[in-house]
Amino acid sequence: MRRALWHGLCVALLCGAWASAADAPNSAEKKVLDRMLGTWRVEATIFQTEWSPETKQVAGRDVITRVLGGHFVQDQRVEPPGEYLSLNTYDPQRKAYRAWLFHRSGESTQFTGTWDGQTQTLAWTAPVGEGRSVTIRSRFVSDDRTDGGVVTKDDAGKVYFRMEGKSTRVTEPPEPEKKADAPASDQARWQGTWIGQVGDNPERQFGLTVRGDRIDLQGANGESAKGKLVLSPAASPKQVDILLQECSEAKLVGQKMLGIYKFGEDGTLTLAAGEPGDAARPKAFETGPDRIGVVVFRKVRPEKLGAMPSPLDDPSARSAEQKVLDRMLGTWRSDATTFKSEWNSETTQRTSRFACARVLGGHFVQEIHEDAENTHLMFYTYDLQRKGYRAWSFNVWGMTIDLEGKWDAEARSLTWTAPPREGKTLTVQSHYLTDDTVEQSILVKDDAGKIYLRMEAKHTRVKESKE
Prior knowledge:
Helix content: under 10%
Distance between the termini: 45 Å
Strand order of the largest sheet: 1-2-3-4-5-6-7-8-9-10
CATH class of the largest domain: Mainly Beta
CATH architecture of the largest domain: Beta Barrel
CATH topology of the largest domain: Lipocalin
Largest sheet: 10 strands, antiparallel, barrel
CATH superfamily of the largest domain: Calycin beta-barrel core domain
């Protein structure tokens, strides 16, 4: 069925001429991707190559879930936090697996995949420019382990990047025994995965995972530590001790970090801690040379649609082209009219809401739009290599659309187009009347001027309550 999906500030349009055909979420091909689902501990070796001056060990944690009606598998790197996000699916039209990877460096890559049932291996390939290509291989050794590797090389076989490693499924431990000095109310609130940053310094970014009384910390520069968490919520302010049992800096193993913490009404966790081995516990939530700093953590909820918020949201660091996309940020109410046309038998009206936020190091704007009739996810960015704006749409029916955009500063308009298909052209224009009001039009017509779809919308910013 051909129908349109509209959204705030740009488009997630579904029509047969542009979107890849959808497959049932429970098809045999898509069930292959079920092997990926779960939480995984990743351990790998990056070997010395053209792009890697030395061999080094890296580790991380991935959370992989089905999203958008089960049509897509979302792979989200939560440790180190916000490093990348990918969406994977099977495209029955192309008879191939497809993946879109968005990285905190600002790069985006589209992969094509194949499944070898005999070796239980998924292999993904993508061109990366200048005669080079990247191949990602995942062999499912068992239900709980995957061996794999990443290789980038040119047509002559020269290797620019090589990584080999394994992923081990993380199983949830049994519920910890409740202790007198750690009431369930606080102990339970610590559980899960969090991301946070010290002030405005992206070098002081942390991922934090707590399961029972076990704590796992990851830094933005690869530093890591594991240990035991002991809470004293009856103290004022509340106290936390972290006994380091594993650490990327070996000399710190056995040391204790003393800190204080508090929970915010918005669900945040604020932590102030001294350096490992420091006998003085912070008395207030203040920064200083003798402490790690004050970190405000926000909980990551992998079951939620889309990427985690990025703490690297510094407007001053963005290019003029990226700042254009800042107009999208926030929560919006959309009132739209779809007029009678070739693809619509009658004129209809609809109201919905959507939200846009910067993710993945601030390089991408992510839009999540949900209403009674459609749910979709979009990513926007400015591509420095192409010197143009790009957007990717994924919806609950398994459809995908790639668009390219141009900004007209004088008209305050972003115009998006998709590659022509079957003699039809898709054009989406968003006109920014004010910071809080946007008028948008979506038009599909053929070379003879026949209109297949016409939609007009007004988007109004939803102001947050000051209460």
